[in-house]
């Protein structure tokens, strides 16, 4: 069943709708469906199998459960049949996106339009194609050389260079590392937009914000704005809803590995597919993909210095902790959850958005080979996956007018986690108040010793 869905999905999206290479989604809808009984579940699994459906939530028909809502992109050609089937079996549904192509068109400013660039320079309120992100990285390090450097990490499958930005205040002190990557899944465009936003925020505020000032004394921040560069480009040029990398398999009969199932953490064991046409193909072995290998090699070399590993996705509004491949809790589960809950509270204060915090296998689904689990397994204490907005109203095609609020609230959350980690690891350096209270303690101790 898993197999045939993958094949159907692929067929469904490989038939071009119009002239040119780009795939269109005219008349496709995204539906929210609520199965209430195990009969409903079976009927839905069958419909997924016979029609060309693209499941957004859950990702696999076998993960459909009674009482849990589904989000499905339905090709225009299957809409009538699906709705007929749902009505016939009395399964309730609602339309989330009435026309996927219209929604996509309305989110993309026309090329050369004034939205694209603002007079002051780079606009952080639009999605940027990869060439612009490369250019942005160059500009950022050129104009902020006192704080930012750009470093080569490796090559993608299609031979594009991967670079990360290192944000580091010069000091002779050995510092610890915060890692953050974005864009491991191609279609989750809000994720690279966030990495760029976050860099901008640090640069704008590090001289004045006491919290940023304080953590930059102990921590360097490493940011990889787009991990899956080939996939990201493909989602711009050819197929907006592409998820995986672009590596070719089985003599070029199918493409792409789910890079977030390709890491060496209980690789290939659960919530993955070994069929290369599946959306969740885990690759041919752990780190079989050059993008995965590049990240893993680098982090492994520095693992004793990395305190925090953050990987940014959409959608669903979660801060997820290890593990995804098993229901056992991480050894520092309490701390992980405490930091994430603080982050979720701060996030909500910004725009009222609700995030769920918890272990992936318990609050979302089981999957193996994620970078978050792998990072924790090699000894990085604070490892999280963020699933940004929304909860399905727009799903993977979050409109650009939500970039700003999404990035604002996520910035607050990430800053909260970094502060937590900083205070935990460098308890005496946090703020001026701490040295004040240290003196108080010393004098108390001194008086007590004398008496
Ligand atoms: N970014 C996640 C992934 O692709 C999505 C997870 C949950 N959300 C969802 N709509 N299925 O793995
Ligand atoms: Zn994702």
TrEMBL record:
Residues 126-421 form the Peptidase M14 domain. Keywords: Carboxypeptidase, Cell membrane, Disulfide bond, Glycoprotein, GPI-anchor, Hydrolase, Lipoprotein, Membrane, Metal-binding, Metalloprotease, Protease, Signal, Zinc. Pfam families: Peptidase_M14, Propep_M14. It is found in: Apical cell membrane. One of its GO terms (cellular component) is extracellular space. GO terms for molecular function: metallocarboxypeptidase activity; zinc ion binding. Residues 1-20 form the signal peptide. The keyword Zinc applies. The active site is at 387 (proton donor/acceptor). It is a lipid-anchor; GPI-anchor. GO terms for biological process: proteolysis. The keyword Nucleotidyltransferase does not apply. SMART domains: Zn_pept. Its cofactor is Zn(2+). It comes from the Eukaryota. Belongs to the peptidase M14 family. Carboxypeptidase which preferentially cleaves C-terminal acidic residues from peptides and proteins. Can also cleave C-terminal hydrophobic amino acids, with a preference for small residues over large residues. This is Carboxypeptidase O. It comes from Platysternon megacephalum.
